[in-house]
Amino acid sequence: MKTLSSSILSFEFFKDFFSIDVTKKCYMPGVEKRSKVNLLCSNMDKGKSKGYGSSSTQSEVDAYRTGQPVETWMSEDDNSEDSDMPYLKLQEANNIFKAIYKEIMTIAFEAKYYIKALPALGSIDEFQKVFRISPPPGVRLETTIETAKVPIPARTLCMNLMDLDSWHASMSHIFQYVGGNMPDDVFQDLKHEDPSILHVEKVNVEFHLPTPFAAVRKFSFLRFLKEVMPDELWTIIDVSEDYFHDVGNMTERKCRRRPSAVLIRACDDHSEVIWIENMEVPKQSQLQDDTYSALINSDEAFSAKRWVKALLWSLKRFRGTFFMQEIKWGHPSYLSLLSLTTNMRMDFMKCLRGSPDDRDWTILTDHGMRIMQDATGRSHEACNICGYASVVSFRIQAKPQLVFQYLVKKNRQLQWLLLLDEEAKEILRFAADDESNLVTLHKRSAITKMDWKTEEYLLQEASWDGFCYLIISATMTQADVFFSLIARYKDVELKPSGFAIVPDGLESSLVTFSLQEDLLVPDAETGIRVKSYVTKRIISEIMEEMAGVLEAKS
To answer: Which strands make up the sheet holding 369-374, listed edge to edge?
Structure first.
């Protein structure tokens, strides 16, 4: 795990949340090499957008009247040698984009937020009607909207959401995969013709619950950054590319991004946000595993409210304070500490993927409990020592907050089963003001195989984003603590374990437990038996102790 260097980009963004000079020109890292696009500084006075008017075709009108979705709007004629074809494609793309933008503003207007009137964009009604067509059989429409005041400048928030690496790192517990690339030429031409479109990128993303046993939501869409009012209002627009032209057989795609957006209005050093999630997703009967279908299709799991709360949680995390610091070698940087725990969380979530990267893990068994073997080659194979991980999900008949409070302490005990039976000492505490995020470092004495006394450390982060609770920890050596937190010049390899907790009904929680450890076993079959026995014993112990907690409360 690259604990210091791999996420430096995202941490520079968060550091700038509290020190950015919004009068300076801002460029998006990762895009500079391609086009040097000035994302956020207004250039509206350099030119005006062409007024292309409407280009609705009869086939599109007929399709709407029959209630059938239109998959291809931008027609292609391979035999045509008409020199106007590129212009016509651009004209049609412009009208479609206007309709998408108007649909987003209509949703915000109908929700009675700060949008007071709809934009006048010409005759685009036939295009906009397509976004109101009922979804096909087996698919349902999920539309949610949430508003919030976010304590960072509007330009900085735009930069953070447009940079995919930063977006992923700040909320990695929601993502299974994020990737992006430059879109087709027509969208680049559209950006050049319309100065209000500051950037456009094609995005492939997979959202998941923190369990490998639930279905994943896969999306492919275009992301636009549009400046609505210079230095005052921006909107980040997501929409499926197939609204513009044919991108293949859509029947194979279970999830589709209808016009969605984050409207961002500048308010001094804060931002006023309207978050719109608008998507087509499978109905419950279409999911591979009905055990988790109710949870996945709830209004909470991937709603606009969930995204807004996750964003606010990530900002509170970076505004935390050291309440205790007793490391004898020096004072750690909060950026180093959060970089370490961010990468610890990302490594933990890799174990919870529906399909883990085969460069990281080899799945040995996947029946009720997933057991994996380290595939990185870092283990001591010559000594028959190999890294193993077990992942299992189970239910507890208790509210998530109560389960979380119990497991915060229990997780430390599980990590230190083999150490001396004495109380660990907390030597570092870094917390958000509302303790929605708490990072601790505990120290405890241990005896090595050579009967030498040494000190072991346990780094743990416990957090809650409004929907999902996470408790993630990893053991560290003295050298790990010094080089990663004090000297800050060496990457360290951590093996995080922990719990993810999400609500499953009013009085129940879905808990996912992942445990990494090195085992000295002769073969993989023995490793499976050992991991299965240890994990089942831990879960049985948790269920028994939680029953006692509930009985005491009643």
So the answer is: 321-325, 425-431, 437-447, 453-464, 469-476, 497-503, 509-520, 385-396, 369-374, 361-367
Q: Which of 426, 400, 423 is nearest to 413 (CA)?
A: 423
Chain CA centroid to CA 364, Å: 27
Distance CA 552, CA 530 (A): 33
Judge whether 397 and 508 are in contact, CB under 8 Å: yes
Query: Are the C-beta atoms of residues 458 and 412 closer than 8 Å to each other?
Result: yes
* CA-based torsion, 362, 363, 364, 369: positive or negative: positive
Up-side HSE of residue 128: CA atoms within 13 Å toward CB?
Answer: 17
Lowest pLDDT segment from 73-82, 112-121, 354-363, 425-434: 73-82
State how far the Cα of 379 lies from the Cα of 388, in Å rounded to an integer.
10
When pLDDT is cut at 50, 70 and 90, the band that residue 39 belongs to is: very low
pLDDT at residue 70 is higher than 50:
no
Instruction: From 255, 498, 473, 468, select the one nearest 390 (Cα to Cα).
Output: 498
pTM over 0.85? The answer is no
CB 439 within 8 A of CB 289: no
- Please state the φ and ψ torsions of residue 456, each to the nearest 5 degrees: -110, 150
Strand partners, 501: 469, 511
pLDDT band at 127; cut points 50, 70, 90: confident
Whether pLDDT at 31 is above 60: no
